């Protein structure tokens, strides 16, 4: 029987977008997606493809793990304390 994993990805897209003083529409245009995609990503209801995650990180000129964090099953993330 397979174990059900509840791993997830959290993000700081909202924080980076606001600090850059961009609207959802402006960020969406820069990374090639719809405003709705940015909206649902910021709400935590959408996990972007790896390509989109890299586009967003590149746009903000940061490493991908500065914006997107992997959270392992059980609520602990992969970063060392």
How is the topology of this model organized?
Elements: E1 8-11, H1 13-19, H2 24-31, H3 35-42, H4 50-60, H5 64-67, E2 68-71
Antiparallel strand pairs: 1-2
Helix pairs in contact: 2-3
Describe this protein's structure.
Pfam families: HTH_3. This is Helix-turn-helix transcriptional regulator. InterPro entries: Cro/C1-type_HTH, Lambda_DNA-bd_dom_sf. Keywords: DNA-binding. It comes from Candidatus Enterococcus moelleringii. Helices cover 47% and strands 10% of the residues. The protein has five helices and two strands. Helix 2 packs across helix 3. The chain has 81 residues and is mainly alpha-helical. A two-stranded antiparallel ribbon has the order 1-2. It has one domain (8-71): lambda repressor-like DNA-binding domains (434 Repressor (Amino-terminal Domain), Orthogonal Bundle). The protein has helices spanning 13-19, 24-31, 35-42, 50-60, 64-67, and strands at 8-11, 68-71. The N and C termini lie far apart (33 Å).
Tell me the helix content: 40-55%
CATH homologous superfamily (4th level) name: lambda repressor-like DNA-binding domains
CATH architecture type: Orthogonal Bundle
Tally the structural domains.
Answer: 1
Strand content: 5-15%
Number of helices: 5
Strand tally, please?
2
The secondary-structure class comes to mainly alpha
Classified by CATH, the class is Mainly Alpha
CATH topology: 434 Repressor (Amino-terminal Domain)
Report the uncertain regions: none
Distance between the termini: 33 Å
- Gross morphology is elongated
Strand order of the largest sheet: 1-2
Mean pLDDT: 90
Q: Give me the Rg, rounded.
A: 14 Å
Largest sheet geometry: 2 strands, antiparallel
The succession of helices and strands, N to C, reads EHHHHHE
